[in-house]
Amino acid sequence: PVSSFLPYSGLTRERSEVRPRAGWMVMGERGRPSALDVCRVLAVFLSLFPAVSLQCKILRCNSEFWASTSNAGPEEEFCTALRAYNSCVRRTARTCRGDLAYHSAQHGIEDLMSQHNCSKEGPTSQPRARTPLPPPPPPLLPDSQERSDGPEVCHYERSLLRNTAPPNYTHCGFFGDPHLRTFGDDFQTCKVEGAWPLIHNKYLSVQVTNTPVVAGSLATATSKLTIIFKNFQECVDQKMYHAETDELPAAFADGSKNGGDRHGANTLRVVEKVPGQHVEIHAKYIGTTIVVRQVGRYLTFAVRMPEDVVNAVEEGDSQDLYLCLHGCPANQRIDFRNFRARAAEAHGVGRTRSAAGAHGFTYQTAKAKCKERLPVEDLYFHSCVFDLLSSGDINFTMAAYYAFEDVKMLHSNSKRYHIFEKDAVKKYTVPLPLLTALLFRDYFLKM
């Protein structure tokens, strides 16, 4: 399944009477959102997800709407073009359902209709191109450390009401084959092949794409990551960060390193720690820090976020599929404890000829290798053992190591750094005979 990045409204904390609408575009003359900016966002999505343009033809709808609204015109004409755009998008529903660009267009249209008081009923004349084309947008302001960090509302902790309790910060991590530590400190191992949402709230959305690690294994790892920071009041413009294997940029998709042209732009910044290996994104206006790493061929993700930001969701918006909040669906979970027990049993009875599995590590050699970086036998250690047995990729040792280092940097409770099996609250219900057979197929064939 593919998640949609939905529009949003303002903060739920009592900061301001201003409740901005969805951050699809920059406001132009007479408060009209620029259609050019709408289409730029969609165009970026299309470049990231080429299958959309090949299968669901959302590009054609986007292009027609862009052409028909290039210059400012009467409000009635804009609504007519918007209804035509809506009809075009609806016709793609069969092939586009579940695609990111399709859902972005859907919710963007709803928001534009609301902003312009457009009726859903009315003429839907075919879009027609106008000339001349709009001038290119003005160049982005240069990033500057000296630039003002903006008003108090753009500093999460400063904006909280006085005499209130300090915010409760939570942590989510996603790494390895993959392993998920939720905001509630539940630790899971999942399959989740394809595109899945990690986070979705009023302020940002995070989506990962996971691909199989080796043929014949249910284990996957993250090869792509997309983060959208939605625009907020006078603080930041909408920004997107996209990373994939061997491309971990030190800037947002538009080339900037901060939140744009607003007064609080520097409360959102991309900081490159190790070129091509470690990037941090600091979003002070929502009290959030994100760490993205490339370890071997795959990406890891870690975040520190205030609890009220985690739970700031749109009314009526189902959060069931957002992994960092609710964990992986039951049918996507892998009980690697059961897997480990089977691996240990295979080694313990002396069946060493094939107990190394398909990828070169025995249970004991995997434990020894993981022990070099993770001396405490917690769930990070055991996830490392699982990854080595399932993939044979030594880089997963470092993925587990850095995931734990990120916990120490981002988790607010030092007593909760380690998670042990006895701490696991949720029960894993997915049996593993198929996974075990795949990972130890040589062993089962030679018994």
Fold blueprint:
Elements: H1 35-48, H2 50-55, H3 58-68, H4 75-91, H5 93-96, H6 100-115, H7 156-159, E1 169-175, E2 179-181, E3 187-189, E4 194-200, E5 204-212, E6 220-229, E7 239-244, E8 268-274, E9 278-283, E10 288-295, E11 298-306, H8 307-310, H9 323-326, H10 336-348, H11 363-373, H12 379-391, H13 395-410, H14 433-439, H15 441-446
Antiparallel strand pairs: 1-2, 1-11, 2-3, 4-5, 5-6, 6-7, 8-9, 9-10, 10-11
Helix pairs in contact: 1-3, 1-6, 3-4, 4-6, 10-12, 11-12, 12-13
Explain this structure.
- Residues 56-120 form the Repulsive guidance molecule N-terminal domain.
- Belongs to the repulsive guidance molecule (RGM) family.
- Residues 115-128 have a biased composition (Polar residues).
- α1 packs antiparallel against α6, α4 packs antiparallel against α6 (100-115) and α12 (379-391) packs antiparallel against α13.
- The protein is globular.
- Strands 3-2-1-11-10-9-8 form a 7-stranded antiparallel sheet. Strands 4-5-6-7 form a 4-stranded antiparallel sheet.
- It has 3 domains: 1-136, no CATH class; 152-327, 3-Layer(aba) Sandwich (Protein Transport Mog1p, Chain A); 336-446, no CATH class.
- The chain contains 15 helices and 11 strands.
- The two termini are 38 Å apart.
- The chain is an alpha+beta fold.
- The longest helix has 17 residues, at 75-91.
What is the compact description of this entry?
By secondary structure, this protein is α+β, with helices and mostly antiparallel strands. It is built from 15 helices and eleven strands. Strand 9 (278-283) and strand 10 form a beta hairpin.
